[in-house]
Design goal:
Layout (H helix, E strand, L loop, with lengths): L14 E8 L5 H12 L10 H18 L4 E6 L11 E6 L8 H10 L2 E7 L6 H12 L4 E6 L8 H11 L4 E3 L1 E4 L7 E4 L4 E5 L10 E4 L6 H17 L2 H8 L6 H13 L4 E5 L8 H11 L3 H4 L1 E5 L6 E5 L7 E10 L3 E10 L1 E3 L3 E4 L4 E4 L3 E4 L4 E4 L1 E3 L3 E5 L9 E3 L6 E2 L9 E7 L2 H17 L4 E4 L6 E5 L2 H15 L3 E3 L3 E2 L2 E4 L3 E9 L6 E11 L6 E5 L11 H14 L10 E9 L7 H17 L3 E15 L3 H9 L4 E8 L2 E9 L6 H8 L5 E11 L2 H17 L1
Parallel strand pairs: 1-3, 1-4, 4-5, 5-11, 6-11, 33-34
Antiparallel strand pairs: 2-3, 7-8, 8-9, 9-10, 12-13, 12-24, 14-15, 14-23, 15-22, 16-21, 17-18, 17-23, 19-20, 19-22, 25-27, 25-28, 25-29, 26-27, 30-35, 31-32, 32-34, 35-37, 35-38, 36-37
The chain binds guanosine-5'-diphosphate.
Length: 713
């Protein structure tokens, strides 16, 4: 590790915090690797003969294989032309997980980045997951560039992909450069603003070749004019003075076009589209130039909103050094060398090592020990991190993902990230006594890293229940337990996380009176339960009048209510989406107690719920299946037998994308089913959509089964 403290203060306009966002397999890893390769400081063109370049590169690639899993990597890039000519810019690349089940992680990383590069497969176009991630990026207003990767691949089609970006994503996408050739003949790109053609020489090893400028091929000249005219018109539309010039038929300069394009990208009025092939090392440098030229710097973002924890009032922070320190912890990683690393985006002020900061989310102080800047293959220890930067802090104790850290004298909570509730769970047991301790520790660590992963003890069986966002999510976590923490564990089969709710309003009475010698127990209350719309959660209120129940026991009743709701009434699943109102009761001067009212509350809730038409709810998944056309009928038929609501299908090339909503309970092992049904050519993507009522015939079976199990144990 480098221990020199060369961390120069980069002016804000020379920082880019970006994420590379992609559907799995679109080429996110390859593109990130190439970016790190081209931005690598030690790498000099022409200095090394080809043989060593390749081996060096392979060696580095191995190292990078490790660093790429780090949550953020810092790289430097100096464009040779354009708006940022000869200005070195610091690019922090924040990892956005491409895994289907990890939508919460994607959201978390989107929250801290300022701009994104969406990588698409030129043959597949917009795929299901790209669409989901795109919508998430919309939520956080992340300006974007699209990189149409794999232009060298059989079936690559730049303009069909452009069309799918426009149609499926509804994005204001405009080609910024267009490809020269396609598939095997893909050679380079033509920059539409400057009308320069760049080609990368065909190199069998595909490594380390600079590009050179060429004449625009004759057969492409008309295309270039056509797409340039569109780009110029689209840019001109976003800027009043350019609109005038455009309408008057005046020439708009390159610099004017570029500045206006930058403003338009930042406001998400234009999404520039670039072509390339990361694997073949073509088109990556223009992408880096575009990141620097068009994606926002922290300065462009200007402010972040938060809440003052003391006054609960909104507070706006400027993203500058002059403001007090505020930052957001967005990722926790366990590093084999230094232990726990907490990745923090510094929004304002300066974070100094050796100082104390406030964790506003946890109401606790944290001492800042070492601060690291993560480079592609080294780490640099720094003493200060400034507004706009992304760093890793070693050894923070109580800070979790999504927590705000700030200056103690100027507390703020940056809006927290909301995570979806887990929909599937499984029981896990240590194999040996020694594993028991390790298991607890490892689960704790994993849940710290991933807030959508929950751990719960089952009081009835003494088992540990882990829950998450999908079968695959849990599979990966269990695999990590074994590989990273060497915990021997037996796991049960995944169980759908059902819930219970009520459909009608009803009342119930709870009376807990004991008179056995000494001091008795007396708690007595009446509750009313009312259904609430799906997803609105729980609410508790008192309408007790005239002191029928002393104020101090109202919270005691709630404790009992919540406990009972957690345990469920119908089939042992938590009760959700209801309002509970305590409206009457009686008490005893001597015998009434907290515990007696708690028990009365629990009894009253059970009785009220039983009269309120209890039903089971199940998680419904949004499912997108991509299959070659000839399998469409079979796949739809199979989905229909799984209680799916098919919402339609889109054709893309020879593939069909089927959209459906399917109960999670029907989807266990679907990946295998799909594979065998489509000779391995189908792929599926799913994520939790909402909870819905379980049909009575199925619900009856689940209730009967759970009651049976209870009797047995
Ligand atoms: P990720 O899942 O998005 O990180 O994708 P990877 O970078 O791992 O790439 C997935 C697969 O696509 C790998 O087999 C890559 O070699 C391949 N790939 C990536 N970029 C290109 C490209 O530009 N052209 C072609 N033909 N294949 C590519």
């Amino acid at each position: 590790m480098a221990t020199n403290t060369t961390n120069r203060l980069y002016p804000l306009d020379r920082i880019r915090n970006i994420g590379i966002i992609a559907h799995i397999d679109a080429g996110k890893t390859t593109t990130t690797e190439r970016i790190l390769f081209y931005t690598g400081k030690s790498y000099k063109l022409g200095d090394i003969d080809e043989g060593t370049t390749v081996t060096d590169w392979m060696e580095q690639e191995k190292e990078r294989g490790i660093t790429i899993v780090s949550a953020a990597v810092t790289a430097f890039w100096t464009p040779k032309a354009g708006l940022m000519k000869d200005i070195e810019t610091r690019i922090n690349i924040i990892d956005t997980p491409g895994h289907v089940d990890f939508t919460a992680e994607v959201e978390r990383s989107l929250r801290v980045l300022d701009g994104g590069v969406t990588v698409l497969d030129a043959e597949e176009g917009v795929q299901s997951q790209s669409e989901t991630v795109w919508r998430q990026a919309d939520k956080y207003n992340v300006p974007r560039i699209c990189f149409v990767n794999k232009m060298d691949k059989m079936g690559a089609d730049y303009f069909a992909t452009l069309k799918s970006i426009r149609e499926r994503l509804g994005a204001p996408a405009v080609p910024y450069n267009i490809p020269i050739g396609s598939e095997n003949d893909f050679r380079g790109v033509v920059d539409l603003i400057t009308k320069k053609a760049f080609v990368w020489e065909a190199d069998p090893k595909g490594l380390g070749k600079e590009f050179k400028e060429e004449e625009i091929p004759e057969n492409l000249k008309d295309e270039v004019e056509k797409w340039r005219a569109e780009l110029v018109e689209k840019i001109a539309e976003t800027d009043d003075s350019l609109t005038e010039k455009f309408l008057a038929g005046e020439e708009i300069t390159e610099a004017e076009l570029k500045s206006a394009l930058r403003a338009a990208v930042i406001k998400y009025k234009i999404v520039p589209v670039l072509a390339g092939s990361s694997l073949r090392n073509k088109g990556v440098q223009p992408l880096l130039d575009a990141v620097v030229e068009y994606l926002p710097s922290p300065q462009d973002i200007e402010t972040i909103e938060g809440t003052n924890p003391k006054t609960a009032e909104k507070e706006v922070r400027k993203l500058v050094m002059e403001e007090p320190f505020a930052g957001l912890a967005f990722k926790i990683q366990i590093d084999p060398h230094v232990g726990k690393l907490t990745y923090v985006r510094v929004y304002s002020g300066t974070l100094k090592s050796g100082t104390s900061v406030l964790n506003t989310t946890k109401h606790d102080r944290e001492r800042i020990g070492r601060i690291l800047l993560m480079h592609a293959n080294t780490r640099e220890e720094i003493t200060e991190a400034y507004a706009g930067e992304i760093v890793a802090i070693v050894g923070l104790k109580g800070t979790g993902t999504g927590d705000t850290l700030c200056d103690e004298a100027h507390p703020i909570i940056l809006e927290s990230i909301s995570f979806p509730e887990p929909v599937i769970s499984l029981a896990i047991e240590p194999q040996t006594k020694a594993d028991q301790e390790k298991l607890g520790y490892a689960l704790g660590r994993l849940s710290e890293e991933d807030p959508t992963f929950r751990i719960k003890g089952d009081p009835e069986t003494g088992q540990t229940i882990i829950s998450g966002m999908g079968e695959l999510h849990l599979e990966i976590l269990v695999d990590r337990l074994k590989r990273e923490f060497s915990v021997g564990a037996n796991v049960g089969s995944p169980q759908v996380a059902y819930r219970e709710t009520i459909k009608e309003t009803a009342t119930g009475e709870g009376k807990y009176i004991r008179q056995s010698g000494g001091r008795g127990q007396y708690g007595h209350c009446f509750l009313r339960v009312e259904p609430k719309p799906r997803g609105e959660g729980y609410e508790y209120k008192s309408e007790v009048k005239g002191g029928a129940i002393p104020q101090e026991y109202i919270p005691s009743i709630e404790k009992g209510v919540r406990e009972k709701m957690e345990m469920g009434v119908l089939a042992g699943y938590p009760l959700v989406d209801m309002k509970v109102i305590v409206y009457d009761g009686t008490y005893h001067d001597v015998d009434s107690s907290d515990i007696a009212f708690k028990i009365a509350g629990s009894m009253a809730l059970e009785e009220a719920a039983k009269h309120a038409k209890l039903v089971l709810l199940e998680p419904i998944m949004k499912v997108e299946v991509t299959v070659p056309e000839e399998f469409m009928g079979d796949v739809i038929g199979d989905l229909s037998s799984k209680r799916a609501q098919i919402h339609g299908s889109d054709h893309h090339g020879n593939s069909v994308i089927i959209n459906a909503l399917v109960p999670l309970a029907e989807m266990s092992g679907y990946v295998t089913t799909l594979r065998s049904m489509t000779q391995g050519r189908g792929s599926a993507y799913m994520e939790p959509s909402h909870y819905d009522e379980v049909p009575t015939n199925i619900s009856d079976k689940i209730v009967a089964k759970n009651k049976g199990e209870k009797k047995e144990s």
